[in-house]
Amino acid sequence: MKYKCVIFDCDGVLVDSEAISCSVLLKMAKNLGLNLNWNEAIEEFSGKSLRSIIEYIEVRIKAPVPADFETVFRQKTFALFKSDLTPIKGIHAVLQKLSVPFCVASSGPRDKIELNLTKTQLIDYFPKAHIFSSFEIGSWKPDPKIYLYAV
Q1: Predicted local distance difference test score (pLDDT) of residue 1
Q2: For 43-52, 60-69, 81-90, 100-109, which range has the lowest pLDDT when averaged over its residues?
Q3: Mean pLDDT in the chain?
Q4: What average pLDDT score do residues 29-56 get?
Q5: According to the model, what pLDDT value does residue 2 have?
Q6: How is 41-105 classified by DSSP, letter by letter?
Q7: CA–CA separation, 99 and 18 (whole Å)
Q8: Which residues contact 87 (CB under 8 A, 6 or more apart)?
Q9: What angle do CA 120, 19, 23 make, to 5 degrees?
Q10: Mean pLDDT throughout 125-145?
Q11: What pTM value is reported for the model?
C-alpha cells in the first residue's frame, strides 16, 4: 500500500511529554486528596484527554476540581516543557526520511503544540499550515474529526 500522508500525534509520539504531564497531574491530584502511585498515574493519565482525566479525578475525590485546575495544570506543564521536554528517541531521523507529506494533529492547544515542537527542535518539520489542534475545531479525540480536518 502506498501512503499519501502521515498524521502524527504530538504527545508521546513526537515529544516525550507524558511523564512530565503525569508527574504534574499526580501532584495536583494528591493536593485534592487522591493518592496514586506512579504506575497508577501512568495507567490512568497517559494518552488520555485532560477532560477525561479531570472527570476521573472528580469521581475518585467525589467533588469537582477547582475551577482553575486546567489553567494551573497548563501553567505547570508549560514551565516544565520549557526546561525538561525531549523529542521521542529517533523521531528526527524518521522525519528526515519521510518521502510523503506529514503533519501533526493534537488535542492540545496550538500554543502547546508549537512550544513542544520548538523546544525539541522539531518545529522546522512542521510549518504552521501543517499543525492542527482540536481547539481549532472544538472536537477532541477519540472523535476522528481532528484527523479528517488535518487531511
Answers
A1: 64
A2: 43-52
A3: 93
A4: 92
A5: 82
A6: HHHHHTT--HHHHHHHHHHHHTSPPPTTHHHHHHHHHHHHHHHH--BPTTHHHHHHH--S-EEEE
A7: 28
A8: 14, 15, 16, 120, 121, 122
A9: 125
A10: 89
A11: 0.81
Nearest CA to 122 among 148, 98, 142, 139?
98
> What is the CB-side half-sphere exposure of residue 44 using CA atoms within 13 A?
21
* Long-range own/partner contacts, residues 112-118 (CB < 8 A, 24 or more apart): 112/74, 112/78, 112/81, 113/10, 115/78, 115/81, 115/82, 116/10, 116/11, 116/14, 116/15, 116/17, 116/81, 116/85, 117/10, 117/14, 117/15
Q: Do 132 and 107 contact (CB within 8 A), yes or no? A: no
Instruction: Kindly report, residue by residue over 75-86, the tens digit of the pLDDT.
Output: 999 899 999 999
Sheet containing 102-106, strands listed edge to edge, beginning at the edge strand earlier in sequence = 6-8, 102-106, 131-133
Q: Which three cell numbers stand for residue 72?
A: 494551573
In the chain the first and final C-alpha atoms are separated, in Å, by: 18
